Amino acid sequence: MDALRGIKVLELGQLIAGPFAGKTLADFGADVIKVEPEGVGDPLRKWRLLKDGNSVWWEVQSRNKSSVCLNLRTSEGQDIVRRLAAEADVLIENFKPGTLEGWGLGWDALHALNPRLIMLRISGYGQTGPYRDKPGFGVIAEAMGGLRYLTGEPGRVPVRVGVSIGDTLAALHGVIGVLLALHHRDVNHGQGQFIDVALYESVFNVMESLLPEYDVFGAVRERSGSTLPGIAPTNAYRCLDDQYVLIAGNGDSIFRRLMSVIGRPDLADDPGLAHNDGRVSRAAELDQAIEAWTSQRSPDAVLAAIDAAGVPVGRIYSVADIATDPQYLAREMIVDAPASYGGSIKVPGIVPKLSATPGRIRSVAPKLGEHTYTVVAEGWPAHAPAAQREAAE
Question: Virtual CA dihedral for 156, 158, 160, 161, nearest 10 degrees?
């Protein structure tokens, strides 16, 4: 049995944050109806690389969902949403705050209609505060949350992470909120509630010791390239042919093993380097000693020697490395799934790994409006055609 079997999710969001939350719930069995604008659909359908006119990203983001096309600006579309929301467990939206209220579909209206409803609201700045009405995208949230300032080389322009990490962090916080709200409703006998997730807060929440260090010491953490200030040694080290490996020798016993491998017993036995605080003060010296050893060896030779000593080490993976890595394959993180355009496509597997209810790909990403007639005519029962579900299993 799927962990979320029987949970009905109405997804009104588009692009990344809201739909990623919906995708995560759908992977574990929730019945997700995705509402898309008539004619054009979710803009993600046309983002990045396209196959037969549709984004291959869409195959991942919208698997296990049904697609219903509605015009939410019309009374007819709004009435259909109300009818679906009256039976839904969860509604996901990531519009600008106030948009749903303008359509008569805000929290107060839907909660009165269905007191058990849980509404996940994801926006740039949240539903309150002086920035509430500003448009907000993940890249802006990453900057406001403190991540962009820390990313890159010292003295150079701050760079962005190569994926929309702000949106995804917000989606994951949203999923946590949904599961907490479901527990409160169903176990603690509470009512539904709304969950207010701001993109910038989701980024800020993973900024570790950034704020208390500033508060106590006035310290502003700066960009540090491939190292992590305050923890040593851990860095990317150059090997032959200008390739790099990552080595994390920052545990006390791990550090001693690493120094033994690189032929530096003097550093291993130095009492001043026995603990992290002493190593941090001499981080540049340690990095130089490690790279003097790695730079004379191939990445494979470095990986083999460091790994044999029980020191955390790894290469910097491209997607080509990921696609053939035995660890990824053994844990079913590279999955051949049916594609909406026919044939199959490699997609990421399901995370997290649950032992009894591990989640599954039940149906392919839907064609635009594929389930509109069925949903409008019949309502919530499993909307994806049985043959389509079986083909995906």
Answer: 80
Residue carrying the six token digits 């269905």:
114
Residues shown for the chain: 393
Average pLDDT of the residues of the chain: 94
Task: Provide the 10 A C-beta neighbour count for residue 157.
Answer: 8
With 0-12 / 13-18 / 19 or more C-beta atoms within 10 angstroms meaning exposed / middle / buried, residue 313 is buried
Beta strands of 57-208 (E only): which ranges? Answer: 65-69, 90-93, 118-123, 194-198
- Helix 283-294 and helix 252-261, axial crossing angle in degrees, nearest 10: 40
Give catalytic residue positions: 167
The one-letter amino acid code at 22 reads G
CA distance to 237, 240, 302, 315, 316, per residue, from 298 (Å): 11, 5, 6, 11, 14
In terms of Cβ atoms closer than 10 Å to its own Cβ (0-12, 13-18, 19+), residue 138 is buried
Helix (H/G/I), strand (E/B), else coil: 161? coil
pLDDT digits (tens, 9 = 90+) for 160-211: 999 999 999 999 999 999 999 999 999 999 999 999 999 999 999 999 999 9
pTM of the model: 0.92
Residues 206, 220: Cα–Cα separation, whole Å:
16
Measured CA to CA, the distance from residue 229 to residue 23 in angstroms comes to: 36
pLDDT digits (tens, 9 = 90+) for 341-387: 899 999 999 999 999 999 999 999 999 999 999 999 999 865 443 33
pLDDT in the model for residue 385: 39
Closest CA to 279 of 254, 303, 296, 297: 254
The total of other beta-carbon atoms located within 10 Å of residue 6's CB is 10
